[in-house]
From TrEMBL:
Pathway: Isoprenoid biosynthesis; isopentenyl diphosphate biosynthesis via DXP pathway; isopentenyl diphosphate from 1-deoxy-D-xylulose 5-phosphate: step 2/6
Feature type site, description Positions MEP for the nucleophilic attack: 149, 204
Single GO BP term: isopentenyl diphosphate biosynthetic process, methylerythritol 4-phosphate pathway
Organism encoding this protein: Geodermatophilus poikilotrophus
Protein name according to UniProt: 2-C-methyl-D-erythritol 4-phosphate cytidylyltransferase
One GO molecular-function entry: 2-C-methyl-D-erythritol 4-phosphate cytidylyltransferase activity
Higher taxonomy: Bacteria, Bacillati, Actinomycetota, Actinomycetes, Geodermatophilales
Length: 220
């Protein structure tokens, strides 16, 4: 199976509040995007396309290996993945879409996703259980209900797809649609999505506390 990796790295990282786009923020002196590309490559996906902010092409080209292809992303994650997908050739059987914002995802997770695709899944996402009691709140912030969390999962990346399923789903999706992840795109187009076990180390760096935790993880 020939798999191509996409790294969504074109976000600004407003919630992190750094002085540069989040994907360029260093973790142990290396930009987050470099960690994410390494995860894909160490997991067996050598051919990688990275979606970056249009005004930061040079900065990303400086920090990434020469054989990583860069494309200009869009104003939403959905638009960025759509742009990167257009650069994936028809020779690929599978596409793995990963977040630059998940720097410490272990390569084992890439392997699990690839194995599920090889076994016949058309779409697969890594998931983790919800470990806290989870509630619904009303408009005033009061607790309205407690949810049955046994059926809930937290979704991570990389998410893997048969290339034709992902391409067809994005072609079907309206140009301005914004969905939270790529599994939602293919599911909306009618493709069943399988799951594999995620990994807590693949947590997303969203707010400053997440970056502090990641720094602790790499310093151990
Ligand atoms: N227009 C966008 C928005 C997000 N992403 C990428 O999608 C991943 C997950 O997004 P998130 O962590 O929510 O990043 P930001 O949108 O940058 O964060 P924020 O919402 O805090 O601004 C990140 O690797 C981010 O770079 C992207 O490629 N293009
Ligand atoms: C794709 C994702 O990482 C899956 O958990 C996530 O949806 C990214 O964006 P979000 O805006 O932080 O939900």
């Amino acid at each position: 199976m020939h798999a191509v990796g996409i790294v969504a790295a074109a976000g600004s990282g407003l919630r992190l509040g750094a002085d540069r786009p989040k994907a360029l923020v260093p973790l142990a002196d290396r930009p987050l995007v470099c960690w994410a590309v390494d995860t894909l490559r160490d997991g067996g996906v050598a051919d990688v396309v990275v979606a970056v902010p249009g005004d930061e092409l040079c900065a990303f080209a400086t920090v990434l290996p020469l054989d990583v292809r860069l494309v200009v992303g869009g104003s939403t994650r959905t638009a960025s993945v759509r742009a990167a997908l257009a650069a994936v050739g028809t020779g690929a059987d599978a596409v793995l879409v990963h977040d630059a914002a998940r720097p410490l995802t272990p390569p084992d997770l890439v392997v699990r996703v690839l194995e599920a695709l090889s076994a016949g899944a058309r779409a697969v996402v890594p998931v983790l259980p919800v470990v806290d009691t989870t509630v619904v709140v009303d408009d005033d912030g009061g607790v309205a209900d407690t949810v049955d969390r046994s059926v809930l999962r937290r979704v991570q990346t990389p998410q893997g797809f048969a290339r034709d399923a992902l391409v067809d789903a994005y072609a079907w999706l309206p140009p301005d649609a914004e969905l939270t992840d790529d599994a939602a795109v293919v599911r909306a187009a009618g493709v069943p999505v399988a799951t594999v076990a995620g990994d807590e180390r693949g947590a997303k760096v969203t707010v400053p506390h997440d970056l502090a935790l990641a720094e602790l993880q790499v310093s151990r």
